[in-house]
TrEMBL record:
Keywords: ANK repeat, Repeat. ANK repeats lie at residues 70-102, 137-169, 172-207. It comes from Leptospira ryugenii. This is Uncharacterized protein. The keyword Transmembrane does not apply. InterPro entries: Ankyrin_rpt, Ankyrin_rpt-contain_sf. The keyword Cell wall biogenesis/degradation does not apply. One of its GO terms (biological process) is regulation of gene expression.
C-alpha cells in the first residue's frame, strides 16, 4: 500500500522554495530539448550512439534529412561534434550532404578538421557544390580547409572542383591564399604551393588592400607564426 507523506502546513511552506525551483528547472530543460526539434537520430549521433543504432533508426523509416532548430541534419551534427566516423555511414543510408543549415553551410563547412581522405571523399561523391558560401562569414569550403592547413585535404578539394572558388573572397575580402599565409599549420607551405600551382591570383587584395604577400610581410612580426616557414612562403611570390 502506498503511503502518501502527510506534510503539515508549515512543512509545506518550508519545502516550496526548494521544490518550485527544482520543477521549474526540470520543465525549462525539457522545453529546451523539445524546442531543439532534434530527432532520435540527432541525439544518437551526438550522444553515446553507435553505428548499429544509426542503422536501426534509419532502416525503421525515420526521415534521414530531418532538421533541428538550426536547420541541421544528423550529418551536420556529426561533423560539428567531430564524430567524423559516422559520416560515410550516414551518407550511405540516405542523409544528403547537400543539405544546408540556417547559416547556409553544408556538412563540408564543418569538416575542415577531418584527416581521413576516405571520409572526405564519401561526401564528395555526391553532387555537392564546393563553391557555396556561408551566410555570415561568406566563406567557402576551401577557405575553411586552407585555414586548417592540411595539404592532403586541400589537394583533394582542388581536384574535386574547389579550384573554381580559389579566388572567391569572404566577408573580409580574403581569398584562400590569404589564409594560407596566416595559418599556423606546420604544412601550410605545401598548401600555399598547391594554391599557386592551381592558379590562385597572387595580386588579389582584401578589404585592407592587402595581397597575400602583403599579409605575409605583416606577419613577420607575429611571434605565433613560424617565421622560417613564412620566409619560404614569401619566396613563392
Amino acid at each position: 500500500m502506498d503511503v502518501k507523506p502527510n506534510f503539515k502546513w508549515y512543512e509545506k511552506v518550508l519545502l516550496y522554495p526548494i521544490l518550485i525551483p527544482f520543477f521549474a528547472v526540470k520543465d525549462f530543460v525539457s522545453k529546451i530539448e523539445n524546442d531543439s526539434f532534434r530527432t532520435r537520430l540527432h541525439q544518437v549521433v551526438i550522444g553515446k550512439g553507435n553505428e548499429e543504432k544509426i542503422k536501426s533508426i534509419l532502416k525503421s523509416g525515420a526521415n534521414p534529412n530531418a532538421k533541428d532548430r538550426d536547420g541541421r541534419t544528423a550529418l551536420h551534427l556529426a561533423a560539428l561534434n567531430h564524430r567524423f566516423e559516422y559520416i560515410p555511414l550516414l551518407v550511405s543510408l540516405g542523409v544528403d550532404p547537400r543539405q544546408k543549415d540556417d547559416e547556409k553551410a553544408t556538412v563540408l563547412h564543418y569538416m575542415s578538421e577531418v584527416k581521413d581522405s576516405e571520409i572526405l571523399n564519401s561526401v564528395l561523391t555526391s553532387a555537392i557544390n564546393l563553391n557555396d558560401k556561408t551566410d555570415l562569414t561568406e566563406q567557402t569550403v576551401l577557405h575553411l580547409f586552407v585555414k586548417n592547413g592540411d595539404p592532403k585535404m586541400v589537394k583533394i578539394l582542388l581536384a574535386k572542383g574547389a579550384k573554381q572558388s580559389i579566388d572567391v573572397k569572404d566577408y573580409l575580402g580574403n581569398t584562400a591564399l590569404h589564409y594560407s599565409m596566416s595559418s599556423m599549420h606546420p604544412q601550410k607551405l605545401e598548401v600555399t604551393k598547391l594554391l599557386i600551382a592551381a592558379g590562385a591570383n597572387t595580386l588579389s587584395q582584401n578589404r585592407k588592400s592587402q595581397t597575400a604577400y602583403d599579409l605575409g610581410l605583416e606577419l613577420q612580426k607575429d611571434p605565433l607564426i613560424d617565421q622560417n616557414i613564412l620566409k619560404q612562403q614569401l619566396r613563392l611570390f
